[in-house]
Amino acid sequence: MSTKKIVIDPITRIEGHLRAEVIVDAHGVVQEAFVSGQLFRGIEIILKNRDPRDAGLLAGRICGVCTNSHFRGAISCVEDAYSLEIPKNAEIIRDLIAMALFIQDHVVHFYHLHSLDFVDVTSALLASAKLTAQEAQKYHNNPYSSDYEAVLTKVGNFVKAGKLGPFSNGYWGHSDYKLTPEQNLILISHYLEALKFQTNISKAIAIFGGKTPHPQTLVVGGVTSVADMLNPQRLNDYIFIIKEAKEFIDRAYLPDAKLLALVYRDEIKGGIGRANGNFLCVGGYEFEAEQRLFCNGIIYNHDFSNITEFDASKVTEEIDRTWFSGDAKENEICYTDLNEDRTLKTAKNDDKYSWIKAPRYDGKTMESGPLARVLVSYSKGNKLIKSFVDEFLHDTDLELLDLSSTVGRNGARAIESAYICEYIFKLVSRLIQNIKYYDTDTWVKYDFEKLQKETKGRSFLEVPRGVLSHFVSIKDAKIENYSVIAPTTWNATPKNFDGLRGAYEEALIGLKIKDTSKPLEVLKVLHSFDPCLACAVHVIDADGKELSHYKIKTF
Ligand code: NI
Asked: I need a surface site. Which of 98, 133, 165, 425 has the fewest CB within 10 A?
């Protein structure tokens, strides 16, 4: 049977460059997929020979979105190396910044990076404002938006002026768009509201982070935002913004996720966008001794009843199919993707095809992210999240397994946003209680000169897109080696000598592409993982082995 190769490049424009190549049969069904990180980075090289106390500030520059995640990952990693235990209040402040980032990331991802794979803007213009208001009532009894007439005018003006901005370049009219004009208008109105949400939630991050997107208040040993913590007005401002955010999540985001789950029910039940059913969650964010926001655990093959504990020693990383060569001691940066005439090659079964390294857990590829957290935590009976998952499944008439799909992945992200808001309120109450009892410590005193000169540290954190790990080795009080495995590295891993497909590639297999000149289906699957390629590409071995020589070949 004849096959055809479809190349989509870039899949993402904002967070690094991702390319997908899929091979489809004569019926347009995907037989094989190659997903490639196209941008070499190398931040770890910059970290070498620096003062370990600066690791956070430098690692934060890995990404323009996941800044705080890397900042904290690096600080925690150095604290681990020196066995420094930080005060509880410092942890709460760090969590308050992180939690605000979780909901910012999820809302921005859904509306601004992904929703236009489901929402046909041109169809929304045909909607009746009155019928839209009635439709919105089906998903929440007090919908977030009410003035749909104004939204119609606003979007109509965009179109009339010929300045479509973010709405240009869509596959509008594609048969995979299934929403009615009224449903499209609901989501477009929330798309516009989410722009305001994005601004406000950034202010919440900045209250304790100093500024955003690159916070400044995390230091090895604690946080520096003591004055903010002790100022009731600052705490109030933070809570006020989170309360507003919660309104949007409860009355717009969650209802929209339910709407999609109802309209795309056939796709969910057909398992469209499902990866191999292996999920990794390292857990974390402890509120009280017995209560953790996320449970740790590993799920294999969608078996939710046999969850094993996460074991850091089972994490490995390989380079066979990446544009690195040499052994673990000497990585040669070896880009092989240009033909003689400088045109791009396309991936072959035995070729190198990505800058993203290949992390494995116990030799297997894993999906990481909100879906993994929801599945692991819910299956382990996590009391903090149970009611949120139950309500979503009840309202959409779905089962837990159904969340393992393109549309379900978005549902998991919306559910997580809702329970994170509740968690934030608990954290703030705890912080206020501590302050009332004169527990105002935010940092631990240490003498850097007296710390070990040679040591190693690591941190495993759940961050918005999934599991983030940082590894450091320190020698003569300088960073000797640094390594990062980011959430997108797990999900977008290339095949290795094992031939195993990662979550992105596996989720594409069997996908039917109706019109190969407009592969909307591929975009939808890959975007549902919330790719961050800026974060995904890293150069140093996960075991912290010395990789001191980098050779760069140029044409
Ligand atoms: Ni990132």
From this structure: 165
Q: Which amino acid is at 236?
A: N
Terminal-to-terminal C-alpha distance of the chain: 38
Q: Tokens at residue 42, please?
A: 């190398």
How remote is the CA of residue 327 from the centroid of ligand 1, in Å?
Answer: 28
Judged against a pLDDT cut of 90, whether residue 302 lies above it is answered with: yes
- CA 196–ligand 1 middle distance (angstroms): 21
Of 228, 201, 260, 241, which Cα lies nearest the Cα of 406?
260
How crowded is the C-beta side of 113, counted as CA atoms within 13 Å?
24
Distance from the alpha carbon of residue 140 to the mean position of ligand 1, in angstroms? 32
Distance between Cα 436 and ligand 1 center (Å): 37
d(CA 332, CA 120): 45
> Which string of DSSP letters, residue by residue, matches 374-408?
HHHHHHTT-TTTHHHHHHHHHHHT--GGGGSSHHH
Could you tell me the distance, in angstroms and rounded to a whole number, from the CA of residue 534 to the centre of ligand 1? 6
User: Could you report the per-residue pLDDT of 365-416, keeping only the tens digit for each?
Assistant: 999 999 999 999 999 999 989 999 999 999 999 999 999 999 999 999 999 9
Going from the Cα of 391 to the center of ligand 1, the distance in angstroms, rounded, reads 31
Cis omega before residue 213 (within 30°)? yes
User: Ligand 1 centre from 364 Cα, in Å?
Assistant: 23
Token readout for 58 is 């430098």
What does the pLDDT look like over 205-229, one tens digit per residue?
999 999 998 999 999 999 999 999 9
What separation in Å is there between the alpha carbon of 213 and the centre of ligand 1?
11
Distance 65 CA to ligand 1 centre (A): 5
What proportion of the chain, given as a percentage, has pLDDT over 90?
75
pLDDT score recorded for residue 548: 38
Centre of ligand 1 from the C-alpha of residue 486, in Å: 8
Span from the CA of 515 to the centroid of ligand 1 (angstroms): 31
- The predicted pLDDT at position 289 comes to 64
Domains and CATH numbers, the chain: 1-63+76-81+275-404+446-468+475-555 (1.10.645.10), 85-271 (1.10.645.10)
Q: What residues contact 304, with CB distance under 8 A and at least 6 apart? A: 375, 379, 400, 401
Residue 132 CA, ligand 1 centroid: distance in Å: 36
43 band by pLDDT with thresholds 50, 70 and 90: confident
Helix (H) / strand (E) element for 219: namely strand 218-219
- Rounding to the nearest 10 degrees, give the CA dihedral for residues 352, 356, 358, 364: -110
Q: Tell the burial category of 368 from Cβ atoms under 10 Å away from its Cβ (0-12, 13-18, 19+).
A: buried
Centre of ligand 1 to C-alpha 61, Å, is 10
Between the CA of 345 and the centroid of ligand 1 the distance, in Å, is: 27
Tell me the CA–centroid distance for residue 176 and ligand 1, in Å: 29
Q: How far is the CA of 125 from the centre of ligand 1 (A)?
A: 34
> Distance from the CA of 464 to the center of ligand 1, in angstroms?
9
